[in-house]
Design brief:
Oligomer: single chain
Shape: elongated
Distance between the termini: 41 Å
Strand content: 25-35%
Largest sheet: 7 strands, antiparallel
Number of strands: 11
Order of helices and strands: EHHHHHEEHEHEEEEEEE
């Protein structure tokens, strides 16, 4: 059967060096739209890229994201090798429909409509199962602006669970209202929703029960993804 065996005999910096295919640090940094300092830190082992940056490097270099990140690859194994088998599935969840780039945009541009050029995002099945989430109901949304600072920053990746039978008081939701997309914390009262920004420079919005149907709840934020520089 097709399973995954650990062939991670090299470190990430070795796999990155292979992916560069002889390019200089300067040329490779330009190819990936990253700074030379960042690439040098990766090559020295000083730092390790976020999943978002791994995705960009894998796409720019036309290599497997899974191999670049872990060194694992698919191959046929005999049953006696079971103790060496790594068999956790990795799924690619879609980007929120209003932020979805075309394939050409994702391959050629650093930002599309001010969002990272990612068409989908890798999620490990075990994490979703541990959280009790249906992986097929997850999407990724790129946060915009400073309304949810300091908890959520501009262009942080947000894993959104679109399975929302009941609204959880105090949770953060992605909401559509007319042509607008809102990211707000919802407080529940007897007759309304209170849509709150973490940044107190912005006002709250009170939605009376009679207007609930004007707002579409896209989903609830279940994970925040941040780059650490």
């Amino acid at each position: 059967m097709n399973t995954i065996k650990n062939k991670n005999v090299k470190t990430f910096k070795d796999r990155l060096q292979i992916s560069m295919q002889g390019l200089s640090v300067s040329a490779f940094a330009k190819k990936c739209d990253m700074s030379e300092t960042v690439i040098r830190d990766y090559l020295s082992g000083k730092t390790y890229p976020s999943l978002t940056r791994l995705e960009v490097i894998a796409e720019k270099c036309n290599v497997s994201f899974n191999w670049l990140a872990t060194g694992y690859k698919l191959e046929v194994l005999d049953s006696e090798d079971d103790e060496d088998v790594y068999n956790e599935n990795i799924y690619r969840i879609p980007v929120y429909k209003k932020q979805q780039p075309s394939k050409t945009e994702a391959q050629t541009q650093r930002y599309i409509r001010e969002t990272p050029p990612v068409m989908n995002y890798p999620i490990v099945e075990g994490w979703a199962s541990h959280r009790g989430l249906d992986i097929h109901k997850l999407i990724i949304y790129w946060a915009k602006g400073d309304l949810m600072l300091p908890e959520i920053e501009n262009n942080n990746g947000l894993i959104i669970n679109t399975e929302t039978a009941d609204i959880i008081d105090g949770a953060i939701y992605l909401i559509e209202y007319e042509d607008f997309t809102l990211l707000r914390k919802i407080r529940l009262t007897l007759g309304s929703w209170i849509l709150i920004c973490n940044n107190n420079q912005y006002p709250t919005i009170e939605v009376p029960k009679a207007d609930f149907n004007k707002y579409r709840i896209v989903g609830r934020v279940v994970q925040i993804i941040k780059d650490i520089f």
